Amino acid sequence: MLDLVSHYCFAHLSSFKVTRSRRAWLLKNAKYADRAASGKFITIYPEDEGEFVQTVIDLAALLKDFAPGPYILSDSRWQASPVYYRYGAFKEIVKEISGQKCYCLQAPDGSWQEDQRCPYYYQPDFVQEPAELVRDNFQVKGAEISKLTAYQIKEALHFSNGGGVYLAQKNGKNYVIKEGRPRVWMVMARMPSAGSKKKRAG
Fold this sequence. Notes:
The chain is an alpha+beta fold. Helices cover about 20% and strands about 25% of the residues.
């Protein structure tokens, strides 16, 4: 994936960054990692809206063999591809809003708004998605009917990158529903005990 995307970005002079190592990737996707950053491997910074739309469409075709990939909670998914997008600042700009310092982005009227990095897709109120993406993104045109629609979710009991635990009701009875997010791993490191020796395989 990195070979394909990097060659595309170099050919189109697109700025991008990548998770720097396998260890960093595993830690980013661990069960208790930051849910707003989980699943992200390569981030591309297009120059304008036209380049953004074309990049989304081109990469979805280029990476079709990698679908579906990890689900990125903070972004909007493009069709059934491993390509996601969100609107946010390209640089870390820190401003004070309502007495709190936070990462910000600038609205067209010059005002500063918090660059919200949430574990769900957030779009600033001054942003309008390109018509091509809204029209052709079949992911947002209708959700599949799920067995979960028979349950009423009352509250979240626990959150993790691996999935939440929820209190639900159905026909007057209480249920605990556990969510399992695919492609999220438990990353653990165990220290050897004092005096232990490594065993050599083979």
